[in-house]
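Supplementary Methods. Inverse-folding protocol.

Structures were first reduced to a discrete structure-token string of length 221. This string, shown here, constituted the complete conditioning input.
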């Protein structure tokens, strides 16, 4: 019984990975860069997305896919509010997006008029790590209030990312957060990860992060 269950899970993941590859090929054919953002609930995914979109050049055309476990449109409405197309994806209670859901979301976008797609994954530090979506880059947003031990408790999600954004650094004076200890945990898992410290509230660090991302987006143009 155990062996059959493992085979089924492997089949599902193999199909998912195939769809992800097809999605990535489609986006590259349209010269679109894509980014999968993962984080725990409350880390500031949407607020960072809004700040990032506002910091990028105005002629850089973006869209956002908003993943959520419930059929709410709060985050999508915030993105629409700054004039950026957003598609809400309801996972039906699942704790992560998968490649097929992202594919359906992308089908609702005008790909001929986009340079950049952000996928905001479901707030979770475990499930999203196992599912490829077809994006060019994976990143994690951490935040000061979450504590500095997350890389040690949830290592898998940090292994496959290219960027780590530590958000809410304006709270460092008020929270016992050891940044060197946190960084050591990240680099032990992923020595080549790019690390950014930002505050979505004050804007500190946002220009450096947005400039690095701009270069990544233009690399597929």
């Amino acid at each position: 019984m155990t062996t059959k269950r493992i085979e089924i899970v492997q089949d599902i993941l193999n199909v998912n990975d195939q769809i992800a590859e097809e999605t990535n090929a489609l986006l590259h054919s349209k010269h679109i860069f894509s980014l999968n953002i993962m984080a725990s609930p409350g880390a500031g995914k949407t607020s960072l997305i809004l700040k990032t979109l506002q910091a990028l050049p105005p002629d850089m055309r973006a869209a956002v896919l908003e993943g959520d476990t419930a059929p709410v449109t709060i985050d999508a409405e915030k993105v629409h509010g700054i004039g950026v197309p957003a598609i809400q994806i309801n996972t039906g209670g699942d704790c992560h997006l998968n490649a097929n859901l992202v594919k359906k979301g992308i089908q609702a976008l005008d790909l001929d008029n986009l340079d950049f797609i952000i996928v905001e994954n479901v707030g979770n530090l475990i499930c999203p790590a196992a599912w490829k979506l077809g994006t060019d880059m994976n990143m994690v947003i951490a935040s000061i209030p979450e504590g500095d031990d997350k890389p040690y408790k949830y290592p898998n999600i940090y292994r496959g990312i290219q960027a780590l954004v530590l958000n809410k650094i304006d709270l460092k004076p008020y929270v016992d957060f050891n940044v060197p200890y946190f960084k050591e945990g990240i680099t032990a898992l992923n020595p080549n990860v790019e690390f950014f410290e930002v505050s979505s509230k004050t804007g500190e660090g946002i220009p450096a992060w947005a400039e690095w991302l701009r270069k990544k987006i233009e690399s597929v143009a």
